[in-house]
Amino acid sequence: MKLFTLTSFIFFFYFTFLLLLSHGDSATESSRPPFACDTANPITKTLPFCNMQLPITMRVWDLISRLTLDEKIDQLVNTAAAIPRLGIPAYEWWQEALHGVSSAGPGIRFNGTINATTSFPQVILTAATFDYPLWYRIAKVIGIEARGVYNSGQAKGMTYWSPNVNLYRDPRWGRGQETPGEDPFVAGKYAEAFVKGLQGDSLEGGMLGEQLQASACCKHLTAYDLENWNGVIRQNFNAKVTQQDLADTFQPPFKACVEKGKATCVMCAFNSVNGVPDCVNTDLLTNVARKQWNLQGYIASDCDSVSLLYDTQEYAQSPEDAVADALNAGMDLDCGTYVKDHGKKAVEQKKLAVGQIDRALINLFTIRMRLGLFDGDPTTRPYGEIGADQVCSQDHQNLAIDVARNGMVLLKNSEKLLPLPKENISLAVIGPNAYDWVVSLGDYAQPPCVDFTPLQAFQSYVNDTVYHKGCDSVNCTVAKIDEVVEIAKKVDYVVLVMGLDQSIETEQLDRVDLVLPGKQQELIDSVANAAKKPVVLVLLTGGPVDITSAKNNPKIGGILWAGYPGGGGSIAIANIIFGDHNPGGRLPVTWYPQSYTKYPLTDMRMRPEPISGYPGRTYRFYRGPKVYEFGYGLSYSTYSYEIISVTQNKFNFSVPFSVKKFEKLDSAPYWVVSDLGEDICKAMSFTITVGVTNHGDMAGKHSVLVFVRKENPRNGDPIKQLAGFASVNINAGEKVEVELELNPCERFSSANEEGQIVLEEGPYVLLVEDLQYHINVPV
Ligand SMILES: *[C@@H]1O[C@H](CO)[C@@H](O)[C@H](O)[C@H]1NC(C)=O
Ligand SMILES: *[C@@H]1O[C@H](CO)[C@@H](O)[C@H](O)[C@H]1NC(C)=O
Ligand SMILES: *[C@@H]1O[C@H](CO)[C@@H](O)[C@H](O)[C@H]1NC(C)=O
Ligand SMILES: *[C@@H]1O[C@H](CO)[C@@H](O)[C@H](O)[C@H]1NC(C)=O
Ligand SMILES: *[C@@H]1O[C@H](CO)[C@@H](O)[C@H](O)[C@H]1NC(C)=O
Ligand SMILES: *[C@@H]1O[C@H](CO)[C@@H](O)[C@H](O)[C@H]1NC(C)=O
Fold first, then answer.
1. Which residues form the Fibronectin type III-like domain (predicted)?
2. Residue 299 bridge partners (DSSP)
3. Residues 613, 618, 623, 626: is their CA dihedral positive or negative?
């Protein structure tokens, strides 16, 4: 393909440049990464905390025992001070790597040898691949690049505050783009894969030893998914959450992130839950995250959360109380300066014990040591060989484009309008999002290794391409409708590249509407009316939009949701439009109609309330009208399915009488999942084998989603929920078998009103596309 030649061409020059730079003599001294225990330093040579033969617990104790109270307090903030007398450099805890090593935190600067990193698609698009091993590979690459940036002296730390695994509860949320979507199981699997990849574990897990490639952080605990809506801002939002919703919707992604992913950090959120700010919630931080989930790492506050307790939320009586409340609840690190400014006074006022400070320091220094930052020059240690040449490598670039291609969701393709012919056509590309590569990045971005615009990608296929922006901006307050209509009349094909950008949805900015902004819809309809053939609509958005009108308009033949596809993502769009890639992404969120905005964003309830007409949220609970369903997505192929086998009926299983079975009038008999324990749950697990045949004439990547529902659902039960998913490559005409292991304790269970995860006895139905399979639990 033409474009790849162009890519290689650019890479050639890029690396020639890097080579010249790294051979110059300017960069060497300033590009040393910060580390402690320099073997060349006579002061630290003999200190026990520098002795790599000793266990980390002993080294950490030795270090802490040498610190004065002032020195200790200075370590409890994101920009931790140097301790020169002990040879310890300053450390920055705040780095970001949501979808690539980012310059969004203060610790990374792209002003040296490395001026860009691989820009993966924004997470919501990555989630649409439903491909767990792919998620892992992305994070692994990000971890490698993080080391490359660090080793080159352009990072002040190796602790990353990613992933964001808050559930995407409402389509208006400005940061929904950063998340893996609305399903708690998918979000949990994404969290697990991301953390394992970034930290250096294996895909299957269990390989993570003491050493960390990088440290990941599960954020923002908990029930945080509102920025700024109708005068309510995240810093003082009190989320009213039922125990039931907390247990089976808001918490599961975090539980998986810590328990299965083994994340070494959790960040507490700005907001309160049921009146208690998350960062002072002892039950949440200490009982749940640290004890129940067994967090081996540190708990960070979101930035300035501690100061807010006194300054904004009026929760604490004084700054010292705010500091003491947070540390006493289990928070270890203040993103901000409040603990540094008021910590000593809190100790003097006996609100904060030095023992709590030492506990925080243990959690913090343990992670710095596990990252190898107290072992002398890290470039001579494990991960030390990763150099600048691995950042933006061709392999990493190709992976990013591949993710973008596989995430994009084909929403409409009437009369097989797509793919478009590559030859002998004239093409008009219209829309503000075609001409700006920055839109493709989404938030928490960085300079990408390559930065094609969608227009450039289309031009690489069709020389005879005319372009018009159509709107003044994505907000589209001014539209040149007459001009674009004239263009549309003259060409064979029209592709409109519309949607949203960070001026419409981002951190600190929720949407009020679900429809396309300003005059976009009017422009799309006018162009579609004027064009010779049905037009193609490409949407760059994070969150869902109400495009009912485009969906129903026969003059709009194809619709592709492209998320924010990352630096190389424009290539992916063109690859799909011209048939060099068969789309297979599926929506990770429900697309609601505009009428959904009549329910307040502040209403946290997942479950519907029939009396008031409140419809509930996400595919698990919402029965109202939808523009597109969770899991929806077309392909250039058609697929058929068969359920080949379910191992469950091959054996008989009964739950031992020693496990209490609860009998209540308003539900089937049930067990509390934690009473069942791992062994029984494992014994109940079974395998479903699904056959999938590709009837198209292109190979395709296809995700199989298996849902489960109760045969007799009651109030509060999900309509259905995802039980398993896997993504497979299927050649044209080929049939493949997909095996999914399902654990009823995890996948058939849901929370009762007390917030217990329970498994009901009785008949369930497995749903695979339009197939149903009846199944009994426990047998
Ligand atoms: C890059 O920026 C950082 C932070 O502003 C600065 O300390 C450093 O000296 C800069 N490096 C170069 C090579 O300009
Ligand atoms: C495109 O046009 C050229 C020149 O008219 C012709 O030789 C070629 O066969 C055409 N290609 C297709 C795919 O129609
Ligand atoms: C990075 O440096 C290369 C080589 O000089 C240059 O071509 C590229 O534009 C730079 N990228 C950014 C994002 O500054
Ligand atoms: C592309 O179009 C330009 C003019 O728009 C023309 O000069 C050039 O020859 C064309 N290239 C090809 C390969 O058709
Ligand atoms: C977008 O347009 C609306 C009017 O349609 C206006 O109220 C709003 O301020 C604009 N937003 C931006 C970011 O320009
Ligand atoms: C399972 O139990 C049923 C009913 O008790 C019995 O008919 C069946 O043979 C058993 N199956 C196996 C594989 O043991």
1. 702-772
2. 266
3. positive
CA–CA distance from 759 to each of 53, 187, 452 (Å)?
A: 48, 21, 50
Beta partners for residue 727, in sequence order: 703
Hey, whose CA ends up nearest to atom 10 of ligand 5? 475
* Rounded-to-10 torsion of CA 200, 203, 207, 212: 10
Pocket test for ligand 2, best of 422, 424, 425 (most atoms within 8 A of CB): 424
32 burial level (CB within 10 Å; 0-12, 13-18, 19+)? middle
Is 109 close to ligand 1, i.e. is its CB under 6 Å away? Answer: yes
Say if CB 196 and CB 208 are below 8 A apart: yes
**Among 365, 449, 366, 373, which Cα is nearest to 147's?**
373
Task: Please tell me the predicted confidence (pLDDT) of residue 13.
Answer: 35
In order, the DSSP letters of 201-248 are --SSS----S--SSB--EEEETT---SEETTEEGGG-EE---HHHIII
Any ligand 5 atom below 6 A from CB of 518? yes
Picking from 458, 341, 403, 524, the residue whose alpha carbon sits closest to that of residue 137 is 403
Contact 166, 278 (CB under 8 A): no
* DSSP 3-state of 277: strand
Amino acid 19: pLDDT: 37
The sheet that has 298-301: what strands, in order across it? 218-221, 265-268, 298-301
Amino acid at the residue 399: L
Whether 38 sits among the annotated catalytic residues: the reply is no
Distance of CA 670 to the CA centre of its chain: 33
Q: Is there a contact between 328 and 282 (Cβ–Cβ < 8 Å)?
A: yes
Ligand nearest to the CA of 648: 6
What parts of the chain have a pLDDT lower than 50? Answer: 1-29
Task: Please check whether residue 564 is in contact with residue 445, taking contact to mean a CB–CB distance below 8 angstroms.
Answer: no
* Residue 27 Cα: closest atom of ligand 1: 13
pLDDT at site 177: 98
Q: Does 111 sit in the ligand 1 pocket, CB within 6 Å?
A: yes
The residue among 588, 670, 672 whose CA lies nearest residue 633 is: 588
What's the one-letter identity of residue 667?
S
34 lines ligand 1 (CB under 6 A): no
Residue with structure tokens 């409890």?
76
Q: In this structure, what are the phi and psi dihedrals at residue 92, rounded to the nearest 5 degrees? A: -105, 120
**For 154-202, what is each residue's pLDDT tens digit?**
999 999 999 999 999 999 999 999 999 999 999 999 999 999 999 999 9
Pocket test residue of 28, 32, 109, 156 for ligand 1, highest count of atoms within 8 A of CB = 109
Amino acid at 36: A
Q: Which of the following is catalytic: 183, 248, 278, 302?
A: 302
Could you tell me the pTM of the whole model? 0.94
Domains observed in the chain: 5-21+392-598 (3.40.50.1700), 29-225+232-382 (3.20.20.300), 638-777 (2.60.40.10)
In this prediction, residue 651 carries a pLDDT of 62
Q: Are strands 272-273 and 238-239 parallel, antiparallel or unpaired?
A: parallel
Q: Is 528 in the pocket of ligand 3 (CB under 6 A)?
A: no
In our burial notation (b when 16+ CB lie closer than 10 A, e otherwise), range 428-452 reads: bbbbbbbbbbebbbbbbbbbbbbbb
